[in-house]
Amino acid sequence: MYIALDAMGGDYAPQSNVEGAVLFAREFNIGVYLVGNKDLLEKELKKYDTKDLPVEIVHAEEVIDMDEPPSIAVRKKRKSSMHIAAKLVREGKASGFVSAGNTGAAMAISKFVVGAAEGIERPGIAVAFPTKKEKPTVLIDVGANVDCRPRHLIYFAVMGHTYAKEILRVSDNPKVGILSIGEEEGKGNDLVKDTYPLLKMTKLNFIGNAEGRDIFTGDFDVIVCDGFVGNIVLKTSESLGSIIVEMIKNEVKKSLVSKIGAALMIPALKRFKRKADFAEYGGAPLLGTKGTCIITHGRADSRAIKNALKAASDFEKTHFNDRLKENIDNLLPEELKG
Amino acid sequence: MYIALDAMGGDYAPQSNVEGAVLFAREFNIGVYLVGNKDLLEKELKKYDTKDLPVEIVHAEEVIDMDEPPSIAVRKKRKSSMHIAAKLVREGKASGFVSAGNTGAAMAISKFVVGAAEGIERPGIAVAFPTKKEKPTVLIDVGANVDCRPRHLIYFAVMGHTYAKEILRVSDNPKVGILSIGEEEGKGNDLVKDTYPLLKMTKLNFIGNAEGRDIFTGDFDVIVCDGFVGNIVLKTSESLGSIIVEMIKNEVKKSLVSKIGAALMIPALKRFKRKADFAEYGGAPLLGTKGTCIITHGRADSRAIKNALKAASDFEKTHFNDRLKENIDNLLPEELKG
């Protein structure tokens, strides 16, 4: 098995990407195609002992910038590292691809170069949020589809179910909710009100409306929403998390006693940070494409890259798309299929 | 000036409500009508020295439960403390009312008993979020209006502008944004794309799309959104904030050294908590009603009640609704009025 890594994408590319690939190949003995500028990558790779490691460089002469519009990335920059990594998946040489680069571009390239999986109209991005409990909650979609119809949310629910069950292994029959305001049926906007009865018709373990606060309680395994709301929730949460840490740091700086206190707390804070770190869960997969596409944070370090590669290989190992197809067949009533 | 307080609403009613009212009347010498069960309130009030304090009890025999549907609250329980407090505003005896009770009911009662202000079709709830900077950012609407049209968001923008300028005093010309995904014009869902050009037509200091992360940076003074998205953002943020604190506490408990560290950090953590506490800003006002309506958290303690009463009196002192009317006249082009 090989995973294609966009070795040029992300704030710390190619250093972190190469290091992450080496760590991954060493630990799991799974192959990695490092896609990007050959000279740069060879130089980076020399820093490590890669004898017998299944790490191969595939040259790509272009790089997609972080602020490049996705349409340009797809149509104009066909020699980019992201494009070529996706092509390796389309051609069956790699089973999935990982990028820490421009999220919109990675999504568009997955969709148009790799293509949607059989029976899927709209792939969706899933993110595993840390919760109070020892297991994450999957929110889907967090940005691939801005305006959605009820039908799309039903498919997100099946994708989220499959992800929570097969990859995150949080439950054999994940509890599914729909993001809304108010707990009772009938509360929410038009999209929620139209989707709710359809979710009840499925064989999913649908337990009703989830509110904003439920994302972090762990009471739901999967929460579906349109990509507009989901993206705002994701960015709000990431930002609030880092600002709380910063505010605490600033307060602590104001006194020597607090500083000493903070120093003593460092191990606990580090454990917390690891727990709250979205990267720990291996980035955000775009579910419902033919091959696997994992999008990690632009700030991805080598550990995050390694985890994302691991996640991509898990998708292949668990035959994720076969499971997804079965679930669509088994969990959805006929009138919601096709 | 008198403010009507729903003395029976909230988790710690009537104790905290009465204490908050006494603290407020003592500090600002502004009148409070304590609305609720006369016997209970008299007993509570005896705990304090209220000689010469302008605190008066107004009897109400019913209480609206936290889970009572708003429609029942408005139509069936006309003798509730919330209802009678709102009626005092409608009759001009009080200039505003404050409730820590059932939010949906408080909103519905404000709308139907007090009524919308002149020229306002849809009142909206504003929340002041703490930011990295020393000033809050106003998000409006956080739940009064689930499905919105562009016109409603334009009015929310003017209400938010007036609130940020007159009450929070963050700026003379508050920077206004619209919550979306992606910074550039043209990014977002249909509602955002339709509202953006209309916001550009106003004389508001409109600076474009705000992303989820911008709520806490302090780069915007006012961010508008529909009540569905706003409510989810509010609840997500409140929940994440408290869960982060809980996760840190749990990590700290695991070692004695961390416990000592945490103990030393207590003053810094308290300062942080005060800063991050939404209650500090005096609850969430429902903007665009004839009188002032301030909704505080169900968990409101006496300090939060006092701050909410203070906020209600600030609305009256600054002639908020007159300022709002002027701003609608001056900032909106003719085609967006009426």
Descriptive notes:
The structure is a homodimer of 338-residue chains. Chain A is of the alpha/beta class and 338 residues long. The first copy, chain A, folds into two domains: 2-120 and 288-318, Isopropylmalate Dehydrogenase (3-Layer(aba) Sandwich), CATH 3.40.718.10; 142-272, Isopropylmalate Dehydrogenase (3-Layer(aba) Sandwich). Chain A is built from eleven helices and eleven strands. Chain A has helices spanning 15-28, 38-45, 70-75, 81-90, 103-114, 150-167, 190-201, 227-253, 256-276, 302-317, 320-331, and strands spanning 2-6, 31-36, 55-59, 96-99, 124-129, 137-140, 175-179, 205-210, 222-224, 284-287, 292-295. Chain A has an eleven-stranded mixed sheet with strand order 3-2-1-4-11-10-5-6-9-7-8, with helices on both faces. In chain A, helix 4 packs parallel to helix 5. Chain A starts with a strand and ends in a 7-residue tail after the last helix. The model of chain A has no long low-confidence stretch (mean pLDDT 90). Chains A and B meet through helix 8 and helix 9 of A and helix 8 and helix 9 of B. Chains A, B: Keywords: Cytoplasm, Lipid biosynthesis, Lipid metabolism, Phospholipid biosynthesis, Phospholipid metabolism, Transferase.
